Amino acid sequence: MLKDVKRIHSCKLGVNVVSNSSFIKLVKASATSQVTLQDVKSKLQHYIDMTTKTGKQLDWGYSEAAFPYSIAEKPEGKDQWFYLKGKDQKLYKYIVFGVGSETVPNEEGNEEQYFIQVVLPEGATHGDKGKANEFCKYLAKEYKAELHLFNGRIMYYYPRKP
Asked: What is the mean pLDDT of residues 38-53?
């Protein structure tokens, strides 16, 4: 439920987590109807692998610039959320990822809709926001999902009916 993902706000990252959130919602036309935390981690790992290969082709450390984080998990967030911790704390601090579901009405009644929530904790840098937007767009494209950005705008990455 949506209430379960709001627990992300109580995580103990050493910063206040009064934050901005972006949502990647899986709709009927999405590539999949459900998502787990492990799925999100594997998509991010694929992103790291892609940027590493690009860096090798360019003979440059592109992966460090494209993904300046390490993936970390706290015991209290196991199977609920994980976070990216910036390698250079002056430029990048934290981005939190969580998954959940909510009940939405449709023609036949109600259905469960899964989503990925991306949270920028208080104290996040402009670099964090830029990278979070980039990762959200990547994940939304991979899942063919509906992306609700931090600024409230919506981007559609799934095929829409004409």
From this structure: 94
Exposed, middle or buried by CB within 10 Å (0-12, 13-18, 19+), for 118?
buried
pTM: 0.85
Report how far Cα 97 is from the mean position of its chain's Cα atoms.
Answer: 5
Q: Quick one: which of 109, 111, 84, 95 has its CA closest to 30? A: 111
Q: Examine the pLDDT at 161 and tell me if it is beyond 70.
A: yes
CA dist 132 → 75, 80, 86, 94, 135 (Å): 23, 18, 12, 10, 5
Examine the pLDDT at 148 and tell me if it is beyond 50. Answer: yes
* d(C-alpha 23, C-alpha 8), whole Å: 13
Count the Cβ atoms, other than its own, within 10 Å of residue 13: 17
Half-sphere exposure for 146 (CA within 13 Å, toward CB): 13
pLDDT tens digit sequence for 96-110: 999 999 998 888 888
